[in-house]
Design a protein that fits this description.
By secondary structure, this protein is α+β, with helices and mostly antiparallel strands. Helix content is about 60%, strand content about 15%. It is built from eleven helices and seven strands. It is extended and about 70 Å long.
């Protein structure tokens, strides 16, 4: 009877361990299945084909196709998501910044959708409308100016050059010696262009209507100084009609956007808190 007690204890212990392992295994499998089910059945994602996943994060084939990414993009997504997960696990995430990034990404996405929607309702101008637009803006589309340009690396250099040019230093010689522009070798000569064409390149109205030496004009590629040496009636009306058509079309898009902004702003309370 004294030897039977240890045997019973061993049997009971084995049963308890076996049941415990079975319960734990079953629970783990249930959790994993629940997670998989959760990933596959997110609202709006039912039936969507999964292209790749990292833990609970999923890249859907339809999203992948919509953004028109190139070859190797799936590997890049996996690479970036692994690093993002590692950052979360390391406690590097700033929740406030994450919320801002998500909101900003959504904002830009919806903005582009709205612009695309508005542009779809804007009619391209007819030839008669373009001619009328040119006649209504003769300084921009019926005259062309002979432009020269100097591009400097920073504002201090540009201002120094501008002072010397204002005192009478030869513009073309200065362009050859100091300009970073592609036309520097020929004295910065960029030829005869209408003011409307210059504005389509992102330059302001004062450059479009320039006569003589300009002020320093900043841009994404440097600091510019322009000079107009001659103004004449346009010699290539077909070229100018194309630029006028684009300018008129863009002005219609801008007007449509402004209209939507005004209506929305009047409907929604907007405030800037300093």
């Amino acid at each position: 009877m004294g030897k039977s007690i240890p045997l019973v204890l061993w049997i009971l212990t084995g049963v308890v361990v076996g049941v415990t392992l079975f319960i734990l295994t079953s629970y783990t499998g249930t959790v994993e299945n629940d997670l998989i089910t959760q990933v596959d059945t997110e609202p709006g994602d039912s039936g969507r084909e999964i292209m790749a996943s990292v833990g609970p994060h999923v890249l859907y084939a339809s999203d992948f196709a919509a953004i028109r990414v190139g070859e190797g993009a799936v590997d890049i997504w996996i690479h970036d998501q692994l690093l993002a997960c590692a950052a979360e696990e390391a406690g590097l995430e700033n929740p406030a910044m994450s919320r801002f990034v998500q909101e900003r990404a959504k904002q830009l996405y919806l903005r582009d959708l709205m612009i695309e929607h508005i542009v779809g309702f804007v009619d391209s101008p007819t030839e008669a409308e373009v001619r009328g637009y040119m006649l209504a803006n003769p300084e921009l589309f019926l005259l062309e100016r002979h432009y020269f340009q100097i591009i400097a690396a920073d504002s201090a250099i540009a201002e120094s050059l501008h002072i010397r040019l204002g005192l009478g230093q030869n513009f073309q010689v200065t362009a050859q010696n100091s300009s970073l522009g592609q036309k520097a070798a020929i004295g910065g000569d960029i030829g005869f262009i209408t003011g409307g064409e210059m504005m389509l390149q992102g330059l302001p109205m004062n450059i479009a209507l320039l006569d003589g030496l300009s002020e320093v004009v900043p841009s994404s590629i440097g600091w510019h100084i322009f000079k107009v040496s001659e103004i004449r009636v346009i010699s290539d009306s077909l070229r100018v009609m194309r630029s006028a058509s684009e300018a008129l079309y863009n002005s219609r898009i801008d007007a449509a956007l402004d209209s939507v902004l005004l209506v929305t702003e009047n409907r929604l309370f907007t405030e800037v808190v300093h």
